[in-house]
Design goal:
Length: 329
């Protein structure tokens, strides 16, 4: 099994290679080397019968994983059971087929983090780790102690047979492919900032604006990536959304949903799903996310002096909605 990497920064969502307004000038931002610490290689290449001896030299580098895993016989036994489990071992071997060469991803991360340092000059680039999770598809990228951890076994390709055997819904496994990892990394980084700066969403509008900010963060870090990859839409779903976004927006207004706090209703418009339940089964999912994203784009396009950090800190969502003057066609 091999992997074909896309050159994310050459995939323009604007057509003809035109520069989108949210693409910053990073010509003055130095490109720094990106180090990806590969815990899975250290763990699965170790002799399972002498794990303490073979893993101890890596304890400082991989303290996130090993700090409490080499302390007693029960922890060592748990590690042994993990690495000798045939299904887990197969995940590791298949991940090496797909992710044996990290250079394309590393090159794209160099560029993405240049944009990050432009928008957040006082923030450090997170330390990166990869591992085998046992297919933790609900949290494929996470922050642990300010370090970003990527589950490589959740990016083995949409047709990877184990995903179907595990019963992962097709609308999720469709995006469990290598091209998705950098988007998920930037979205997780957005969450880190939003959790510090933004209030807790309550109404549908709150959730739409929160999600729109996440998506716009991805715009700023991956400005030339196609919108379908940023929001995980198929071409068919994107076409539906572009054709019916005015209907989707006026539906929320006409039914007085924007200021509702009904969580069940909110989930229908925000959460991952095969489609948006109040609409047809041919509709795009996450219509609230899409609309919130377009509202933020309109708002930022009309207010070029507002920085990304200022946007993330803004909690007056009515102000954003009014300032966007969003009129979908």
């Amino acid at each position: 099994m091999g992997v074909v990497f896309l050159t994310f920064f050459a995939i323009s969502c604007t057509g003809g290679g035109r520069k989108p307004f949210y693409e910053a000038d990073i010509s003055g931002i130095e490109a720094k080397e990106i180090v990806i610490n590969r815990y899975e290689q250290v763990l699965f290449e170790a002799n399972p019968f002498v794990l303490y001896e073979t893993l101890s030299p890596y304890r400082d580098v991989f303290d996130l994983f090993l700090e409490h895993s080499l302390e007693d016989d029960a922890a060592i036994q748990a590690l042994f059971d993990f690495v000798t489990d045939p299904d887990i071992a197969a995940l590791y071997m298949d991940s090496q087929d797909v992710w044996g060469d990290m250079e394309p991803l590393r090159d794209d991360l160099v560029q993405a983090f240049r944009f990050y340092r432009y928008h957040f000059p006082n923030e450090d680039i997170p330390t990166l780790y990869t591992y085998i999770s046992g297919v933790d598809y609900l949290m494929p990228v996470k922050f642990i102690d300010d370090r970003m951890v990527i589950a490589l076994d959740t990016y083995l390709g949409e047709d990877y047979e184990q995903y179907d055997k595990l019963g992962i819904p097709r609308y999720i496994s469709r995006w469990m492919r290598p091209e998705s990892v950098i988007t998920d990394m930037m979205r997780t980084l957005a969450d880190l900032h939003l959790q510090e700066l933004a209030g807790t969403p309550e109404t549908l509008l709150d959730y739409m604006i929160y999600e729109g900010k996440r998506q716009f963060f991805i715009d700023c870090m991956l400005p030339r990536m196609h919108d379908t990859l940023k929001i995980s839409y198929t071409d068919k779903q994107m076409n539906w959304m572009e054709s019916y976004q005015a209907y989707a927006f006026t539906y929320k207004i006409d039914n007085e949903l924007l200021y509702s706090t009904d969580r069940r209703m909110i989930r229908q418009f925000i959460n991952q799903a095969p489609f948006t339940t109040p609409f047809s089964n041919q509709s795009a999912p996450q219509t609230g996310v899409w609309l919130g994203w377009q509202i933020i784009r309109e708002y930022m396009g009309r207010n070029p002096d507002i920085t990304l950090q200022e946007l993330l800190r803004e909690t007056d969502h009515q102000k954003i909605l009014s300032g966007a003057r969003f009129r979908p066609r």
